[in-house]
Every structure is written in C-alpha cells, then in structure tokens.
C-alpha cells in the first residue's frame, strides 16, 4: 500500500510539473525568444554571416534608350525618338566589408557591389552593341554654366568647337554604362579634380561607386526587429541634399539585404539605395504570396513616390533648392556629381504628360514597370525583389549654347534598371523553412503536449489512489449482507452448509494467496448413509485421508507456532481455518475459539458475537488487531484447539470406517490397513 501511494504521489508531482511547463511555454513563448536571439547580429553569427555576404543571386538588368533619329532631332525637324534596347544583365556581388562592432549596438562597414557580366541572361545583347546616347559631360557642363557670366560661356563655346564635341555620340553599350574617354572629362579632371574625380564618365560606374561610403547598421541587441537596418549613412541619419525628415531620414531603412522583422499589416517600411539618392517608403498590398516554401507579402513603392508635392504635400521637400521639377521627376543632382540627373519610373510612368509629349518611343505600362518586394514579415527576409527606376537628364534653358540649344527644357531618358532577386537559393529557402514553418510548432506541441500529459497524469494518479483506498476499505469491511448473498447464490438448503463470516474471510484470503489455496480448504460433510455402497465409501475414505493429511501438515505450523511465538499472524489464521469440524453445524470458527482461550474475560462477548454473524467477525478482527501482545497466548490456544479438533476428527473417521466395513463385508485386513494409515497420517 505504501509503495502504491508513493507511486501515486510521484505521478501527481510529474503531472503538476508538466502543467507548469505548459504554462511557462504559453507565457514566455520559447520559439519567439530563440528566433529573436537568432536575428541578432553577432560576430560569426548565422544571421550576421548571411547579412555580411548574402548567398543570394542579385542582379541588375539595364535597358538603354537608343536615340534613333539623332540628325533629324539636332536639325530641329523631329522630336527625339528613343528605342529601348537590352537587357544587359550583371550579377551584383553585394558584400559588407571591414565590419566593426561598436559599443552602441551598431556595426560600421563599407559597402561593396562589384558587377559581373551575365551574357546568358542578356537575351542575345552584347556589351559591344552600338548605341547613340547623350554626351553626358558636354551636356552637364552646358547645364551648369548656362547662367554664368558671358566670358565663361565664351570659353566653353571655344572648348566645344576645338574638341569637336557633339551632344549625341555613338558608343558601345558598355562604354556608356561604365565610362568612355572624353576630352571634356579629362579637362575637368585636370582643372576641377574636386568636382570631377574620374577620367571616364559612365552612368552605371558612377552609380556603383561606393569608395567614399561608410555606413552603420543596427545589430538588434536591444531590438531584434531592427537588426541589419541603417543607423547612419556617412555618419548621419539624414541625407544632406534634402530638407525635412520625410525626405532625408534613412534610419531604419533597408539596403535590400534584410528588412524590418515582425512587420505589422499596416506598417510602412523603408528602402534605401545610393543610386536612388533617397529613402522610399514601401507599403503592403494584395494577398500572401508563396515563393518556394516560404510565404510573404507584396510591398510596393508608396503612391506618388516621385511626386514633387503636386499631389502629396509631404513630397515638397524633394524640390531641390525650392525648385520643383515636373510631376514624376526627382532631382538627384547632388548625388551624381552635380550632373542634372533626375529619377522617375520607367518610361515616365505616372509622370507629367509633357514628359511623354516631348519624347517619342516611350511606352509606360504598370504591369511591366511597377516595382515590387515580396517580404516574409516575421523575419524581414526578402523572398523576391524588383526595384525599377529610370535615370534621366533634365535640362533648363540651354539657348546660350548653340550646339545644345535643342535640349532646352527637355527631359531625356537615358536608361532604366531593375535591381532584382527572382528567388532565394534553395539552401537558404530550406534553412528558413525550418526556422519559420517547422520550429513554430515546438511552442504548440510543447504547450498542448505538456498540458495533456499533466492532466492525464493527475487524473491517473488520483484515480489510482482512490481505487486503491476503496479496495482496501472493501477488503477490511466485508458486510454480513455480502456473506448472506454468497450463501443464497450457492443455493444452500442445509444449515450445516452455510459459510460463516469468519470462514468467508478465510476463503477471501485464500483467493489472494494462491500458494496457500491447496492447504487452506474448508470442507464440510454430513454423515454418510451407512447403507451406501462400499466402493463409494472407499472413495470418500481416500479423500478424507488425503484431507486429514493436509490438515495435519497445516496443524504443524500452528503447534510449532505456540512454541516459538514469532510466527506470522496470517499463518496462524490460515492453519486455524482447518479446525472447523466436518460434522458440527453449530461449531464456531476457530478464530473465535482462539480469542476465547486467549482472553477468558471476553469469552461470553465473543461467543455472542459469533452467534450474531457479521458483528462477531468484525469484533474478532478488531481484538486481533489491537492485542498483538497476546500473540503467544493465542498460539498456545491454537495448539490446544488444534489437538482437540484432530482427536474429534479421528473418532468420527474411525466410526465411519467400522460401519463401512460391517456393511460391505470387505474383510478385516482392509479395515486394519486403513485404520493404521489414518492414525499414522493424523
């Protein structure tokens, strides 16, 4: 019983522990804690390594606007007509170099974005394709000096004439993108080195010049959601070319490697690239999209992103020096060495109608030229990127220079690019699938599993303890009604065949102890008919002798128990059960006899109790349980009672044998043998 209860208490403790674990899982959300820890940037950390050298396929597709009617346009006969050529595709090897961790939970780095030509993705286009493009150096100098004093303008006219410079020149696609030799560029680099620090003018080359850049990003130590986002650019949270936080603040913007984590549905996020010269807001749209095994949401440029305040008043800060360009253009002169560069959507999409009226060959299309980012909101991981921007030259009045006067108040498209990442590599997709789709089930399984286990253990422990206690109570309190019911079910008709409560108790003990079942048998017999056949008698006699032998064996421990006084109580009770007379219907159980001999003063009470059925058995059990010190006396009584019962049994057996012999005429020899055997067994 003690062991059973100990096990029940152990199960109970385990159940409480499991439920406590479920509560802790619900409160602390261990997956979120682990995931936030993984998002933090630390040296040689997993996310840090992915951010420092992203193992992604990032490309830039470039489309040039080839001028098809240069002569007719310069002669004033036709509007400028352009033709889109491309794509010219390069792979961008984006890395963060010279990383230093700072004490304020930031890390400083210098970006690097070398480009590698991808001929197989360029759809048959070659870097040496011939195109007619703007002479950026000549037109830029003309624009910058158009309102300068006459003597300066006269000197430039002479320079243009002697160098035979033309505003439209034929060159290869690669020369236009990455630089071509020009006498004007060489002259500018010689005399104005602080302004023109390069010998060749190439639009993509200048756009990807990060040699003077230094950036600071958050590590996420205090807020895992902002890890990998901009803290400063060139030492400041604001870009110097813009006034106002809306236009200049790049803090918490993404460079495209990683966006803000734990993005809320209505939250706006930022994107910043040097080539765009400004931060741009992104907002969620549409339904979830699945890329590989991950699901993200589509984010697009804010509406009127290239508006100069004509529609969105907040965008007036993009009007450089208070001068606003036509709707759809952003003046980024300060980011491109003072060249009159403006940004727009490809093909002047969403731009002022005048932009399309002055140039032919443009075909704006929302589906083709819209930018989109698919971002996994929990991690901030970009699943696909497509940022499309067009670079133009926007001119003021150039009538003071005859060679370039046709470009006055004209916005000429030069190229548009698409910085794209079509999908995540399979290895990265599999890794984040495990982090984002599989690991979250640990919280669910941990909570419900611990809760179910705890409840099950508690219920099992309580049920087991309750049933055990109930069984013990039933075993110790067997009622007279139960004994009567048993006898009724047995269908007894003779009072001599009725089991008394004490006998039922012994039978119940025999059921619990199968090893004692063979010896502890209570048998009852009425006097056999003296006229029965001899064969039946011999069978009965043989059975009687066998039982007597069993009785004698069982009596032996009881008698020896009286001498030692140390035998177990249950052994005495088992042996004493054999002493009930086979022919005495009024014989009380030996349990009551032993109590009577052990305690003379309680003899009358015990006898009365035995005659009253169940009360006698209950009184006897209580007396035996509380008087352990009378065990020696009880054992002596057992031996006396055992001898008396044995003698009585021998007499009855001998009488039965003599009568059987007389009736069956079996002969005196058999009688002697059987009698001797019986006496010897007893």
UniProtKB/TrEMBL annotation:
It comes from the Eukaryota. Residues 662-682 are annotated as: Disordered. One of its GO terms (cellular component) is cytoplasm. Keywords: Cell membrane, Disulfide bond, Glycoprotein, Membrane, Receptor, Transmembrane, Transmembrane helix. Its main location: membrane. It holds the Pfam family CD36. The chain crosses the membrane at residues 445-467. InterPro entries: CD36/SCARB1/SNMP1, CD36_fam. It is a multi-pass membrane protein. It is found in: Cell membrane. One of its GO terms (molecular function) is scavenger receptor activity. Disulfide bonds join 247-317, 277-335, 319-324. Belongs to the CD36 family. PANTHER family: RE68569P, SCAVENGER RECEPTOR CLASS B TYPE-1 SR-B1. This is Scavenger receptor class B member 1. It comes from Ceratitis capitata (Mediterranean fruit fly).
């Amino acid at each position: 019983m003690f062991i059973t209860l100990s096990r029940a208490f152990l199960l109970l403790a385990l159940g409480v522990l499991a439920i406590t674990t479920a509560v802790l899982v619900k409160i602390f959300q261990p997956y979120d804690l682990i995931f936030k820890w993984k998002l933090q940037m630390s040296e040689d950390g997993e996310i840090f390594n992915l951010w420092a050298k992203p193992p992604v396929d990032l490309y830039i597709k470039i489309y040039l606007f080839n001028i098809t009617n240069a002569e007719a346009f310069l002669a004033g006969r036709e509007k400028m007509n352009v033709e889109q050529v491309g794509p010219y595709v390069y792979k961008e090897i984006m890395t963060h170099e010279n990383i230093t961790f700072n004490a304020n939970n930031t890390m400083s780095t210098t970006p690097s974005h070398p480009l590698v030509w991808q001929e197989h993705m360029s759809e048959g286009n070659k870097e040496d394709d011939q195109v007619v493009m703007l002479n950026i150096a000549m037109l830029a100098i003309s624009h910058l000096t158009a309102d300068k004093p006459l003597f300066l303008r006269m000197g430039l006219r002479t320079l243009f004439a002697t160098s035979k410079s033309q505003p439209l020149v034929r060159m290869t696609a690669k020369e236009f993108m990455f630089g071509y030799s020009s006498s004007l560029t060489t002259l500018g680099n010689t005399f104005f080195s602080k302004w023109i620090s390069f010998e060749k003018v190439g639009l993509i080359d200048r756009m990807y010049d990060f040699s003077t850049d230094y950036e600071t990003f958050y590590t996420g130590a205090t807020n895992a959601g902002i890890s990998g986002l901009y803290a400063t650019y060139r030492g400041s949270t604001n870009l110097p070319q813009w006034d106002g936080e809306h236009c200049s603040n790049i803090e918490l913007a993404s460079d495209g490697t990683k966006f803000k984590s734990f993005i809320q549905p209505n939250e706006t996020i930022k994107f910043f690239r040097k080539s765009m010269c400004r931060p741009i807001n992104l907002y969620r749209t549409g339904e979830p999209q699945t890329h590989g095994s991950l699901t993200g949401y589509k984010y697009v440029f804010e509406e009127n992103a290239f508006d100069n305040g004509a529609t969105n008043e907040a965008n007036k800060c993009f009007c450089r020096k208070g001068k606003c360009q036509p709707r759809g253009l952003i003046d980024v002169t300060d980011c491109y060495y003072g060249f009159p560069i403006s940004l727009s959507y490809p093909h002047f999409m969403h731009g002022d109608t005048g932009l399309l009226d002055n140039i032919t060959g443009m075909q704006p299309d929302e589906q083709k030229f819209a930018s989109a980012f698919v971002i996994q909101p929990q991690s901030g991981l970009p699943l696909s990127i497509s940022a499309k921007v067009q670079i133009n030259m926007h001119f003021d009045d150039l009538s003071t220079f005859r060679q370039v006067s046709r470009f006055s108040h004209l916005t000429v498209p030069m190229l548009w690019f698409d910085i794209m990442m079509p999908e995540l590599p399979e290895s990265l997709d599999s890794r984040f699938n495990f982090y984002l789709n599989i690991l979250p089930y640990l919280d669910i399984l941990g909570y419900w599993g611990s809760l179910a286990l705890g409840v099950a253990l508690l219920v099992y422990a309580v049920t087991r303890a309750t049933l055990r206690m109930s069984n013990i109570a039933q075993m110790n309190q067997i009622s007279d009604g139960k004994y009567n019911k048993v006898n009724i079910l047995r269908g007894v008709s003779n009072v001599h065949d009725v089991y008394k409560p004490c006998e039922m108790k012994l039978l119940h003990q025999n059921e619990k102890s199968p090893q004692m079942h063979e010896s502890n048998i209570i048998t009852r017999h009425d006097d056999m008919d003296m006229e029965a056949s001899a064969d039946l008698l011999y069978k009965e006699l043989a059975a009687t002798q066998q039982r007597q032998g069993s009785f004698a064996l069982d009596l032996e421990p009881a008698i020896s128990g009286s001498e030692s006084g140390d035998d177990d109580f249950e052994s005495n009770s088992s042996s004493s059960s054999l002493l009930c007379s086979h022919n005495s219907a009024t014989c009380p159980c030996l349990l009551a006899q032993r109590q009577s001999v052990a305690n003379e003063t309680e003899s009358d009470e015990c006898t009365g109790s035995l005659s009253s059925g169940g009360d006698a058995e209950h009184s006897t059990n209580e007396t035996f349980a509380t008087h352990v010190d009378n065990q020696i006396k009880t054992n002596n009584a057992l031996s006396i009672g055992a001898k008396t019962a044995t003698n009585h049994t021998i007499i009855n057996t001998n009488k039965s044998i003599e009568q059987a012999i007389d009736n069956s005429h079996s002969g005196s020899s058999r009688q002697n043998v059987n009698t001797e055997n019986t006496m010897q067994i007893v």
